[in-house]
Each structure stands twice: as structure tokens, then as C-alpha cells.
Design goal:
There is one protein chain. 66% of the residues lie in helices and 0% in strands. Helix 2 packs across helix 4 and helix 6 packs antiparallel against helix 7. It is globular. With 234 residues, it is mainly alpha-helical.
Length: 234
């Protein structure tokens, strides 16, 4: 019974590590990004076409780009490369596989493989692959032109908004790891590399960010113990 209760507790979500200001920043950013994208589409494509062209996967992309801009899954290459390669795979699957059910499964499967290979994993791009297969005649009639418009336009506009908004609100985007301190006492980069090599699940944080966190933890532990700081080069 205790094991069953412990298993049930494992479903309890972890607390979100963001204060109220950061939550508001991400929410407002997603709103502004999607609104500005829609307005530009309206000016260029017209009212009806704009709403049809504001693709649903962009909402999921907005969560990543504005709420967690430091995530490797939210970087510009991730969304641009992920969306375009997934659409390319999806359209090809729709053309080659008559039944939409296996076509949809193959599209997502192959898209994930392609994103891993190109280092542009972006979860909402899986929805892009599905959209190209199940989106109906309006999308199918566009053929490979769907990559340029509306998908390419949507993606580019959202990335531009993320670049402007994130940097204006104190988040470096594209995310670059801050310069790490030159003090290290027990952990060496080779240790982390070996651990990551044996990690079987994808971690949504970069290697350099992990090193930065570990460095800061070691620095604080050393100061708390009242021990002198030593340079890593020594």
C-alpha cells in the first residue's frame, strides 16, 4: 500500500520555479507575440486569411519562446528548423501515404527523428507535422508552398517578437550561458560529460547551464564552510 501511495504521489506536479513577475512577463510576452503576428498577417493577407493563417502550433511555440526562453527547445534554430523540417516531412508523408492515420503517425515519427538529427527539437513542431497531414484541403492545396506561407511567415514573426521582447525584459535571447566563475573544487566538466553520456532521457537544460549552477552551488558551500576559495587552474 505504501508503495502504491508513493507511486500516486509521483504524479504530483513540481512547483514552478518562477515568481509572479516572471510569470506575468511570460504571459504578456506570449500575448504580444501572437497579437503582433496576427496583426502583421492581417495587414499582409487580409482579415479572413490572417486568422486562418495564425496556426494553432504557434500558441505552443509562444509558451516556450516567452515563458521559458532559456530552454534549448525554445531557441531560434529550434523553432525555425523544427517547424520547417516537420512541415516538409508531413507534406511528403501526406503525398505518399493515402491513409491519413498512418500518414499522421509517420509524419510525427520521422519529424522527431529529423529534428534530433538537425539539433532543432521543438515540441510544437510535432503539431505542425500533424497539421500538414490532417489540416484539410486548404493546407493540402498549398503543397510545399505551405513552408513559406503561412508557416514560414508565422515562425519568423514569432521569433522576431521573442528576440525583441525577451531582450527588452532582461532575458538574453538567443540564450547564452553567463560566464562561469573560475572557481571549482570538486566538480570537473569531464565528470558532467560522463554523466550526460550515460543519461538515457533528454534533459531540458544545456550542459553549460548545468555547470553554471554547479559552480554556484560549490561556491556557496565553500563560503558557508568558511574555507578559502581556490582557483580552478591551481
Amino acid at each position: 500500500m505504501n508503495r502504491f501511495i508513493a507511486w500516486l504521489k509521483s504524479f504530483r506536479p513540481e512547483p514552478v520555479g518562477a515568481d509572479l513577475r516572471e510569470r506575468l512577463r511570460g504571459s504578456v510576452g506570449a500575448c504580444l507575440g501572437l497579437v503582433m503576428t496576427g496583426l502583421v498577417l492581417r495587414l499582409t493577407l487580409g482579415t479572413t486569411s490572417a486568422m486562418a493563417s495564425l496556426l494553432a502550433p504557434m500558441g505552443a511555440s509562444a509558451v516556450l519562446l516567452f515563458a521559458v526562453p532559456a530552454s534549448p527547445l525554445a531557441q531560434p534554430w529550434s523553432i525555425v528548423g523544427g517547424n520547417l523540417v516537420s512541415a516538409l516531412v508531413g507534406i511528403t508523408c501526406w503525398r505518399l501515404i493515402p491513409d491519413p492515420v498512418p500518414a499522421a503517425g509517420a509524419a510525427v515519427c520521422l519529424s522527431i527523428g529529423a529534428m534530433f538529427a538537425l539539433r532543432c527539437l521543438h515540441p510544437p513542431s510535432g503539431a505542425v507535422a500533424l497539421t500538414t497531414v490532417l489540416g484539410g484541403r486548404a493546407i493540402h492545396d498549398l503543397g510545399y508552398g505551405f513552408l513559406l506561407a503561412p508557416l514560414g511567415i508565422n515562425t519568423l514573426l514569432l521569433v522576431v517578437m521573442a528576440l525583441i521582447y525577451n531582450n527588452a525584459t532582461g532575458h538574453r535571447y538567443p540564450h547564452r550561458t553567463a560566464i562561469r566563475p573560475s572557481l571549482r573544487f570538486g566538480l570537473h566538466p569531464e565528470d558532467l560529460d560522463d554523466i550526460l553520456d550515460h543519461q538515457t532521457e533528454l534533459l531540458d537544460i544545456s550542459r553549460d547551464d548545468l555547470l553554471t549552477l554547479f559552480d554556484e552551488m560549490e561556491r556557496r558551500a565553500r563560503l558557508r564552510e568558511g574555507k578559502p576559495l581556490r582557483n580552478a587552474a591551481q
